[in-house]
Design brief:
rod-shaped, alpha+beta, 10 helices, hydrolase, PPM-type_phosphatase-like_dom, 5-stranded parallel beta sheet, phosphatase activity, PPM-type-like_dom_sf, Sigma-B regulation protein RsbU (Phosphoserine phosphatase)
Length: 423
């Protein structure tokens, strides 16, 4: 190999990630020539006279660069390369085979064995230096990438810890939210109210509820808070307190009279009170849609307010269907809003369905939305021989079967099903 010029000094050469070099050759003379050049370039050099000896060295420490002769007695350079790549090393090492073989087949065998480059004997110092520099650039990029991957792994571990903590909190939050709906079905005399609440995530922005301050008087509602996630769920918790089924003194839909009993306030008045409370809270950007209804079980007189919520579906005992309500504005959007009340009479055997837009705006497998027409067909099919919770469960099952499987549920789904059976 040509002599190294005086200019090629350690101070002037920068081989990046390559610091430690292992020279493997059964020829002592060849090793001396290589080692002399490498040391002048500033490398720490290790020597081995066989593949077996080289493997022992590599098992104890991993060199940055290996220069190995191909043809050696015992373990060949090719076999040594394969054994070297089989070792478990934290850092990648660059491997150059020194050979007199230049045929493409032989080069391919070397690459398959794990070699990164080849040098044809006799070696030239300039070419060796250039090949080492090329290897150093590759190692620099590889190790920089490894460092970044380690940083990413560390960050991912930290994120996993945070995610697990958030997930634990959300599971607890879901339990708290479920406690807002302590019972999903309840009989009121001969009539019955059943409810469905299916958030699309851990927690949701839908809320359903019912309460009765006394015999023959029942109130029930379906609410959908804008947005999704934690802020919406916090709003449902607040609304659950405003419309409490257990603490009548906190329920804004009730009024205590003569210090003896509670009366249900008109639904439109309740909507206006809730709107005033939300508008009075600075910083609250959430609003919600709602259908709230009260019924006198003695005569089936239903009073209802619709505030931006989907139109309730009335199923008549004779098989007829009709959508109720005037639409109206959501609650919490504008101050000083008045809401219109809808009155109707239910007959024994009639049924009323309140539902969130998670039903009607669900994306079907053919790309269309379910909408009110599709909901009416689904309800009619379910209503043939089912009632109560079984009816709602069947509705939800039919929805999941018909929805786009790639999109799934992207909104909360909830419903209230009131079955009127007379006084």
């Amino acid at each position: 190999m040509a002599e190294v010029s005086q200019a090629e000094t350690k101070a002037e050469l920068d081989f990046g990630a390559i610091r430690k070099v292992l020279v493997v050759d059964d020829s002592r003379l060849q090793r001396r020539i290589l080692v002399a050049s490498l040391k002048k370039w500033g490398f720490e050099v290790l020597e081995a006279d066989s593949g077996e000896a080289a493997i022992e060295i590599c098992a104890a420490m991993s060199p940055d660069l290996v220069l190995s002769d191909w043809v050696m007695p015992g373990m060949s350079g090719l076999e040594f390369c394969q054994a070297f790549r089989a070792l478990e090393n934290d850092e990648y090492s660059y491997f150059i085979l020194l050979t007199s073989k230049s045929e493409k087949q032989e080069v391919a065998r070397g690459l398959d064995a794990g070699a990164d480059d080849f040098l044809i004997k006799p070696l030239e110092a300039d070419e060796l230096r250039a090949r080492i520099s090329a290897g150093a650039r590759i190692l620099d990029m590889q190790r920089e990438l490894s460092d970044k991957n380690r940083m990413i792994e560390t960050a991912l571990e930290e994120l996993k810890v945070v995610h697990d903590a958030i997930d634990k909190d959300l599971i607890q939050a879901r339990k708290i939210q479920e406690s807002l709906v302590p019972e999903l079905t309840r009989d009121f005399g001969r009539s019955r109210i059943s409810m469905l609440l299916k958030p699309c995530g851990h927690i949701g922005g839908d809320l359903v509820g019912m309460f009765s301050p006394g015999v023959n008087r029942v109130g029930f509602y379906s609410i959908d808070v804008s947005g999704h996630g934690i802020t919406s769920a916090m709003m449902t918790a607040r609304l659950g307190g405003y419309l409490s089924s257990k603490h009548f003194d906190q329920n804004v839909a009730m009024e205590k009279r003569f210090d003896k009993f509670y009366a249900l306030l008109p639904p439109d008045q309740v909507a206006e009170m809730l709107n005033s409370r939300l508008m009075a809270d600075a910083g609250v950007e959430e609003y919600f849609t709602m259908v709230y209804a009260i019924i006198d079980l003695r005569n089936g007189h239903l009073k209802m307010v619709q505030a931006g919520h989907p139109h309730p579906l009335l199923l008549r005992q004779d098989g007829g269907t009709e959508y109720l309500g005037q639409g109206g504005l959501p609650i919490g959007l504008l101050p000083d809003v008045t809401f219109q009340r809808t009155d109707t009479y239910m007959k024994p055997g009639d049924k009323l369905l309140l539902y969130s837009d998670g039903f009607t705006e669900c994306r079907m497998a053919d790309g269309s939305l379910l909408e009110e027409e599709g909901l009416c067909r689904m309800v009619t099919d379910c209503a043939i021989d089912l009632s109560g919770p079984e009816f709602l469960d069947d509705m939800f099952w039919r929805l999941t079967q018909a929805m786009d499987p790639d999109q799934g549920m992207d909104d909360d789904v909830s419903a209230v099903f009131f079955e009127y059976s007379g006084p």
